[in-house]
Amino acid sequence: MDPKFEKPYDAKETEPRIYKKWEESGFFNPDNLPKKNGKPFSIIMPPPNANGRLHAGHALFITLEDIMIRYKRMRGFRALWVPGADHAGFETQIVYEKKLEKEGRSRFQIPREKLYEEIYNFTIENKKYMEDDIRRLGASCDWTRERFTLDPDIVKEVQKTFVEMFNDGLIYRGKRPVNWCTKHQTSLSDVETVSEERADPLYYMKYGPFTLATVRPETKFGDTAIAVNPKDPRYKDYIGKEVEIETLIGKARLMVIGDEYVDPEFGTGVVKVTPAHDANDFEMGLRHNLPIVEVIDHHGKLNEKAGKYADLKISEARKKVVEDLKKEGLLEKIDEKYTHVVKTCYKCGTVIEPRIMNQWFVKMSPLAKLAHDAFKEGKLTFIPEQYGKIFNYWMENTIDWNISRQIVWGIPIPARVCETCGEGFVHEKKTSCLKCGGSLVPDPDTFDTWFSSGQWPLLTLNYPDGNDFKNFYPIDVMETGYDLVFKWIPRMVIFGLYKTQKVPFHTIYMNGLVNDAHGKKMSKSKGNVISPINLIATFGADAFRMGLVYGNAPGNDLSLREDKIKGQKHFANKIWNASRFVISITGNIGKEKPVLSSQDAAYLSELSQLVSEITKEMDSHQYHIVSEKLYAYFWYTFADAIIEETKIRLKNGTPEEKISARYALREILTTSLCLLHPFMPFVTEEVWQLLPFTDTLLMVEAWPSVK
What we know:
Elements: H1 11-25, E1 40-44, H2 56-74, E2 78-82, E3 84-85, H3 89-102, H4 112-136, E4 147-148, H5 152-167, E5 171-181, E6 186-188, E7 193-207, E8 210-214, E9 225-228, E10 242-246, E11 251-258, E12 270-273, H6 279-288, H7 314-327, E13 331-345, E14 353-362, H8 364-376, E15 381-383, H9 386-396, E16 401-402, E17 404-405, E18 416-418, E19 424-425, E20 440-442, E21 446-447, H10 449-453, H11 456-460, H12 467-472, E22 475-481, H13 488-500, E23 505-511, E24 514-515, H14 532-539, H15 541-549, E25 558-559, H16 562-586, H17 598-619, H18 623-652, H19 655-676, H20 681-690
Parallel strand pairs: 1-2, 3-4, 9-11, 15-23, 22-23, 24-25
Antiparallel strand pairs: 5-6, 5-14, 7-8, 7-13, 9-12, 10-11, 14-16, 17-21, 18-19, 18-20
Helix pairs in contact: 1-20, 8-9, 8-13, 14-15, 15-16, 16-18, 16-19, 17-18, 17-19, 18-19, 19-20
């Protein structure tokens, strides 16, 4: 028997050595697989952010996808798993800004080209660590096909899509409300904001003949109308008339409009209309042709139109305005416990300030209809299925998507803009604006990250002319977190249908979030972040992988407990020790099947039934059930029962019974190693290489046949 079996299983020594063996074999590349004519099967790795190490959520999806690809490879498919990395525009720039803050620098003080270069070098350096982490997890992805969202050909294709969509009337430049983060000085799409329920004071102010309620008295200097519901009998006689109000900086006259948007039950049924600082007010302004008066600047301070309140931050201005309203007798009352929903930046928590800005927008309605129809026609299958309903809801309730970001790090938008009025031009060759005559300059904005990552299945497979696109598109499974069901998934479906008239994938497997041992979301501020690499260093990658999927149904959140990972380390040791015993007493028997005893025939019949069940469950992505069955069978049925019973026959049985017992043990072991391999690839491969009659890698061994 191999001397390695004389020692306990050592994951730290084994795993790097085995991974190197796999990678050097070339079998991660489907072009090198023994069965080159197998049916293609492909998955695309959701590209982790290139700016840092992997977190536990990454580890879960990488484990699940590796299980899928290893299983299909063993089933004889030409299995392709494309790895990648995301430049993660806004998020990476935030990470780098924190680094700059520690160094006493600011991105606003660094020339644009210099800042981009710094972030690029920072990202590429961290990308290496991220990729090493993926290897530590045992990911059998094809590194020869690895893609980065800033690869030159990808940048070119993303920009080409922008121009195509502009030509097709699906992208436009518009002056519309955007979600503005005053801390990071950029606009954000709706999916990059967090809606929080908060309790804020509701101020009842006197407006001429009315009293109206608002949570934002500081924006009163930008009011351009007063609105009531046209069906509200209390105010119908005022509609269409002008009223005079006191504004704290002088008198003003405002028109009273009737609009169905106004809720008669809110406050007094009268609202002020501030089109420049509220998205709903902006829409009312369009319907009633109201002027737009901006009184808050991009830093979140009141501007010169607010008179003596200019240069005050929003919170300071609100406090001062309320004090002055009280002094002037213009504040009727304050409801201190008004509960409402506030949008905040998803990264820093700063309250979003709606601003009217010239930005690039995607017309979502016609594109969302393509996705909606594809879902209704059964071209998309969600696991679990309830996420299909969520996906469909978002496709039925879309708003135009702001794709331009005021940051340096990202893919440049291939357009020019007017320095004076902000108008945008894609094809215009002239140097002056056709609208106002101002000078045209390259658009300094970059694309929203989702605009490039939404095209990921196309970009990774070298659309439109690459062989991989011809052979592997659409991909078979898109596996990702359920939190991306309304962010990433719709955009991939939309781009796939727009560019190819095909859905980019047929099955969407949604994994849950990975929380701490108490079910709490991990965050650095809470100090409860668990590093997957630290757990792997302690317990091994096999134990960590098995701990992530064992009993973890798709779409369910996972509480990551160290004791669960430790338990799977014991299981890896059990596999090693049981294998050592079986190999020690079966090494000298031949491959020919002997006459089996009734007991051994029953054992192999039970195993055959298990193979049949597991194969069906693997095909239906029930990895949580498979992991439980394999654990129970190997530990309790095989190691604790079959091996112990067989020891008696090996000691006291006839020569024929001993040969039968040895053969059955070897069959059960080799079959179990194959079944376990997608879940625990390292220890199973190590044992496989120590078998006396194997000359192939387990990763390309045939999956046990279903009888």
